[in-house]
Specification:
Elements lengths: L2 H22 L30
C-alpha cells in the first residue's frame, strides 16, 4: 500500500475514535477532580474547588 493511503486510513480511524470517545464518555466534572499537587499523594484536599458545596 502507498504511504499516503496508509496515512489517510490512520487519520480517519483516529478521528473516528476521538469522536466516539467524546460522545460515549461522561462529561468531565472539573469540581470533582483532584488538585494537581495532591493527586496520588494520599492526602485529602482541604480547599479550592474540590471543597465547594454542590
Amino acid at each position: 500500500m502507498k504511504p499516503a493511503l496508509l496515512r489517510t486510513i490512520f487519520w480517519v480511524f483516529f478521528s473516528a475514535f476521538i469522536v466516539w470517545d467524546y460522545t460515549a464518555s461522561p462529561p468531565v466534572d472539573l469540581r470533582r477532580e483532584l488538585a494537581p499537587m495532591a493527586a496520588g499523594s494520599g492526602q485529602a484536599t482541604k480547599g479550592g474547588h474540590c471543597s465547594m458545596p454542590e
